[in-house]
Amino acid sequence: ITLLIVASPRAGDMTNRAFLAGFWLIALIVIIALFVTGARERWGSKIALAAIVVVLAYWGALAILHARAVDRGSQEANRIVAPNGETVGRLAVMPTLANPLRWDCVFETDQATYRFPLALNSPTPGRVIRYPKPTGALAAAMEEISGQKPSYVFLGFARFPVARLVDPSCATQTLVQLADLRYTEPGSSRGTFAVELPVDCRGEPFTRADTEGR
User: Fold this and answer.
1) What is the gyration radius of the CA atoms in the chain, in angstroms?
2) Dihedrals phi, psi of 2, to nearest 5 degrees
3) How far is CA 152 from CA 20, 107, 146, 155, in A?
């Protein structure tokens, strides 16, 4: 756990990471020192009660930060889609490893699915990823794979599924890449969060708009 907190690339910028890593290491040293000096024998069950208080305070702080992140994420989502005339539907805000100030926001509109990183201590969000809803050749490919077991199992799991075709100049067969945008993008291997399925080409050239969106 200490290695993940200290070295994780998803823990935010270097300033935040240094503060959080320092706080974690100091707390770890204090716990080890208390153990070595026999705090258990001296304080007994009071340690357990103190731990419960700390956990409850931690949960409360996370609940407050999550509420702030949802509010900020909703505001940013509406600002992002306003120029396109889209309406924000479902929205999810998820924590990132080792940084309670950094969150991932994923939301869906009537035309596309979006994702962007959100830092509560920064006035602007990070890079916005956009995947349009399937149309044209991609929609046809999605229809073709809809009966395959891996497809409907994955789509039953994914809350924010997105897709793209691998080869726009497909001659005989290509791949449909599916992903849950909460965790990864199409083409990234992330276990049950992404899947690739073969699909026959229909003899029609695919445009970039047919195959993917960002």
Assistant:
1) 23
2) -60, -40
3) 41, 21, 6, 5
pTM: 0.77
Q: What is the DSSP string of 24-44?
A: HHHHHHHHHHHHHTTHHHHHT
Q: Which residues have CB under 8 Å from 155's CB, separation 6+? A: 161, 178
| Euclidean distance between CA atoms 34 and 124, whole angstroms | 42
Percent residues over pLDDT 90 in the chain? 38
Alpha helix (H) ranges present in the chain?
2-7, 14-36, 39-43, 45-81, 136-145, 149-157, 208-211
The residues pairing with 165 across neighbouring beta strands, listed in sequence order, are 176
Report the pLDDT averaged over residues 108-131.
93
- Residue 105, C-beta contacts closer than 8 angstroms, at least 6 positions apart: 69, 73, 76, 77, 91, 92, 93, 94, 115, 116, 117, 118, 125
- Average pLDDT over the chain reads 84
Reduced to 3 states (helix: H, G, I; strand: E, B; else coil), residue 107 is strand
Number of Cβ within a 10 Å radius of residue 70: 16
Q: Find how far residue 101's CA is from the centre of its chain.
A: 14
Mean pLDDT of 57-72: 95
CA distance 159 to 90: 9
Distance CA 83, CA 109 (A): 13
